[in-house]
Automatic annotation (TrEMBL):
The UniProt record lists the keyword Oxidoreductase: yes
Keywords: Oxidoreductase
Matching InterPro entries: AKR (IPR020471), AKR2_Oxidoreductase (IPR053135), NAD(P)_OxRdtase_dom_sf (IPR036812), NADP_OxRdtase_dom (IPR023210)
Entry keyword annotation includes Oxidoreductase: yes
Entry-linked Pfam families: Aldo_ket_red
Name under which the protein is recorded: Aldo/keto reductase
UniProt EC number: 1.1.1.-
Residue ranges constituting the NADP-dependent oxidoreductase domain according to the UniProt record: 15-315
PANTHER family: D-THREO-ALDOSE 1-DEHYDROGENASE (PTHR43312), NADP-DEPENDENT OXIDOREDUCTASE DOMAIN-CONTAINING PROTEIN (PTHR43312:SF1)
An MF annotation (GO) of this entry: oxidoreductase activity
Length: 327
């Protein structure tokens, strides 16, 4: 395992870390025993950072992380998120009283005294512009409830604004081969300001694994079913904002990236890691086998300059016009 600085937080995090949305239950049925085995597999292979949220399984993902990291609280970093339990448009949802309650609830579920990275969970841009929530987080940080804080954003514009706030230490962004605007407009600024970057939706909800055929179907409880057109939350969080059929077509056209890199999953993750401003990439998982497959990206060769240019042109010519969402 290799580790990278998470901006100027003082934390060095595993290049591949993991998001825990999937084991919370929003990706179809899950089994806690299987989830815990997968978490232990990740830790045994050097993963020291996990991303979660208070709404993932109504807090169940946080509880699973508490169990998996018991006794390792000083060695395993946990990032969690808040605000989506309430109305993300309501300023009262970001008041000191409300945020403090969210924080304390997460601390109880995580069985920790401090959250390593506390993130505002895709809030309304108007709320960010008001700025009051940053002062609340400053206070929690001063009290030792949180080590550092950041924002999970839906757009490059939001990310650039957040980096103007002096104590925003990290940004979580949708970044993958199908969503390349971040590389051009946000990553250079993050590198200059030493803001950590967490790359989420790295496999475009599975499209970039190359495993979805034209007859792919998903359980009703899976967001790839109920949020396919953005009915529940921002459409960019599902299939990176692409209509499923178009995403499958584009995925087939990308089959060549697996050459010399074992499979598309590992190639897609490698492409993200080839951007040095990225602190860590956080794919989801349900099983130990998926954890190990994702970690295999660490062993495959980097893309050449010519390959990177080819993928950039593919995005410009074939992908960009089909993306829905805020980027």
């Amino acid at each position: 395992m290799k580790y990278r600085a998470l901006g100027k937080t003082g934390m060095n995090v595993s290049e591949i870390s993991f998001g825990t949305w999937g084991i919370g239950g929003d990706w179809g049925k899950v089994d806690d025993a299987t989830s815990l085995r997968a978490l232990h597999t990740a830790i045994e292979n050097g993963v020291n950072f996990f991303d979660t949220a208070d709404v993932y399984g109504s807090g169940h993902s946080e509880e699973l992380l508490a169990e998996a990291t018991k006794g390792k609280e000083d060695d395993i970093y946990i990032a969690t998120k808040f605000c989506r339990k309430g109305d993300i448009q309501d300023p009262n949802n970001y008041s000191e009283q409300t945020v403090r309650a969210y924080c304390e609830d997460s601390l109880k579920r995580l069985k920790r005294e401090r959250i390593d990275l506390y993130q505002i969970h895709c809030p309304a841009f108007d709320i960010l512009k008001q700025g009051d929530v940053f002062h609340v987080l400053d206070k929690l940080q001063a009290e030792g409830k949180i080590r550092s804080y950041g924002v999970s954003v839906e757009s490059v514009e939001e990310g650039l604004f957040c980096m103007e706030q002096p104590n925003v230490a990290a940004l979580q962004v949708i970044f993958n081969i199908f969503r390349q605007k971040v590389a051009r407009e946000l990553l250079p600024v993050a590198k200059e300001k030493q803001v950590g970057i967490l790359a989420r939706v790295p496999l475009a909800s599975g499209l970039l694994t190359g495993k979805f055929n034209t007859s792919a179907s998903f359980e009703a409880s899976d967001h790839r079913s109920y949020n396919r057109n953005g009915d529940a939350f921002n459409v960019g969080e599902t299939f990176a904002g692409l209509p499923l059929e178009k995403g499958q077509e584009l995925s087939r056209a990308l089959g060549w990236i697996a050459e010399g890199k074992e499979n598309m999953t590992r190639a897609a993750l490698r492409w993200i890691l080839d951007h040095e401003a990225v602190s860590t990439v956080i794919p989801g998982f349900k099983t130990s086998e998926q954890v190990l497959d994702n970690l295999g990206a660490l062993k495959v060769p980097a893309f050449t300059n010519e390959e990177m240019k080819k993928l950039e042109q593919f995005y410009d010519n074939e992908v960009h016009q089909h993306i829905r969402g805020s980027y």
